[in-house]
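[step 3/7] fold_predict: job queued, chain A
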Amino acid sequence: MPTYAIIGATGSTGQQILSQLLQSPDNKVKVYCRSKAKLEKLSPKLAAHQNVDVYPGALNDVQLIADCTANSKAIFLVIGANVSYPGMRMIQDGAHSVVAALSTILAKHPNAKMPRILLLSSASMNPRFQPDQGRVVAAMTGLVKTALFYAYEDLGHAEDFLRLQKGWLNVTFIHPGGLVEDEAKGHTLTLDKPPEGFIGYPDLAAGMIEVAEWEDERYAWEGVGVLPKSSARFNPEVPLIFGRGLLAYYLPPVYRGFKSIGLVQ
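[step 4/7] structure written:
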């Protein structure tokens, strides 16, 4: 029975990975979340599964993360949110906690096999997915990178930190395009074709699970794109996400003021 760990199971990607893994009774799933109550609200049937263990608590609790990830075949590191704000570091904090947890495991059990880590990142982080662009497309790309500046900065620090572990860990960086709530359309994996448009969470989760299930090293230290087999719908929340991100980038004090009174996330 393969064991999988999910770090960030209450987000849309984590929820889809959990749901799809539980479709097979042969899988054991270990789930980290900050709030067990929130997880159970999102996944009300979770208690009926005997092959799920939940580890609620603080992300910086290294022993908790070690317990969650011990003896796993793969770790889905899918912490994140559709926000971008100054000081954002949830993804790099997750990467640091997982590495510290695995170091703890290895110190106690020197012969332990380390699991594959799959970090949910973005196609914007992959140089191979940045083709030559005309001025209009380049301007749009610049707008996206500005609106999501702090989120991409967080991802960049997380990726850089994980790459420092190349001597003893196995990491795959998942680089999808835009994410959207949509039905499953099927997926393909790519190392060189830039993702275009959006992909639904069910197809993203299925692609990540496919990478996790490979027994060889073909995706070790690679940036892997996940493409839908047919076009996903446009995410209607994009204008709000971009507007919020541009406010945080250009007017941080105003953003913090709005956030303090609940006008923005």
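[step 5/7] annotate
Residues 90-108 form the longest helix (19 residues).
The chain has nine helices and ten strands.
exit 0
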